[in-house]
Design brief:
The protein has twelve helices and four strands. By secondary structure, it is mainly alpha-helical. It folds into three domains: 109 residues, Orthogonal Bundle (434 Repressor (Amino-terminal Domain)); 58 residues; 63 residues, no CATH class. Helix 1 runs parallel beside helix 4 and helix 5 packs antiparallel against helix 6.
Amino acid sequence: MDLTRLVKTEDLPEANLASSASVSAQDLVFELSKLIKGYLADRPFIGLSTISGRCQVSESTLRRIYNCQIKTLPTPSTVMAIVSYISEETDVAKLIELNPGLIANYLKENFPHAAEFDCEVSEELNRELADSIKYLVYKLCNHTSGCSEEQVMDLVGKVGIQRLEELLRKDLITQRGGRYYSNGKRFSLAPELFKDKFQFMSQFIKVEERPGGKLQQNVFSNYSSSVNQEAYNKIMKIQKQALKKIRETMVNPNSEGDLHIFALSAIDTIEY
């Protein structure tokens, strides 16, 4: 059984992806509606269809938000697309500053590391990197040391080189000194894409013996139990603190090097 199926990244009735009790669907949709109406009031020459085409959110969804007819929280990618387009900004920390209150709270809860570590979240990257091989190639280019064609070829073969060329043509990456680097800052994808990327990246977890009978120097675990809510909250807090420290170490300039690493993490309940 694929346990990643149990990681809940989609909207649940009357709850959002981060289980944030602080943001209700009705209040958030009302704030988004106000944001859209204010934007249109200053631009009488455009309508919802124009916003829909530019932020890649369906016109029917936009219209329901505009009329406050949605009873459940919109997905994080929908909220991000609308707010990012209207605010003309993709940096999560800046979007939080520009949209204080419920929208800011929602972004903080659904993109916590993006808000803390100056990450970009864009609908363009969500679309382009839905392809997992292209995601991996861009991820490598986004690292401080960048990547080479040889590294891409060794990891994913000719299809990886094709994705590298596609990213280059779309000006998402650039070539310098025989290596490739992303043109954007650190990035975060929509939570809805998490499980697919988790599964894809898990293939690089090395559990077999290395040459010489030595195990790869890594960490992997798979724990489960039945606990009470207090214990569950404590476990979540511990993991969030650990992930924050890992992320701080990764983005520290003193940590820069040529070793491409990754960390996967998920804690959830075994239920649909």
